[in-house]
Amino acid sequence: MISFFSDLRYKEVIDIHSGWRLGYVCDAEIDQTEGRILSLITPGRSKFFGLLGREDDYVLPWKCIARIGGDIILIDAKEKLPRRRRSKKGFEF
Q1: How far is CA 12 from CA 80, 90, 91, in A?
Q2: Strand stretches in 1-93, DSSP E
Q3: Percent of the chain whose predicted confidence (pLDDT) is above 70
Q4: Is residue 77 domain-resident?
Q5: Is 62:87 a contact under the CB 8 Å cutoff?
Q6: What is the pTM of this model?
Q7: What is the C-alpha to C-alpha distance for residues 91 and 93, in angstroms, rounded to an integer?
Q8: Given the DSSP bridges, would you call strands 65-68 and 83-84 parallel, antiparallel or unpaired?
Q9: How far is CA 40 from the centre of its chain?
Q10: What is the CATH number of the domain that holds 60?
Q11: pLDDT tens digits, residue range 42-55?
């Protein structure tokens, strides 16, 4: 089966221990020297219907991924997942 990174964007990420839905993959960290994926990133939950912004993004290390299925990605997060604030891009004139 051949998969593309664009296919990962349509797969929902679920933690198998807690059953939490972490959202859909929005980005990935790739090691260019070795040519492998280091982690997948899902956006944080929105605050008050998105009016107050979002929480920090979830960074899912590749070692936490238990299974990639046809429509979901199961992760095995035994410890707390690392989070990272999304960089804000300013307006350019």
Answers
A1: 19, 29, 31
A2: 12-15, 21-24, 27-31, 36-42, 57-61, 65-68, 72-75, 83-84
A3: 74
A4: yes
A5: no
A6: 0.73
A7: 7
A8: unpaired
A9: 4
A10: 2.30.30.240
A11: 887 766 765 666 67
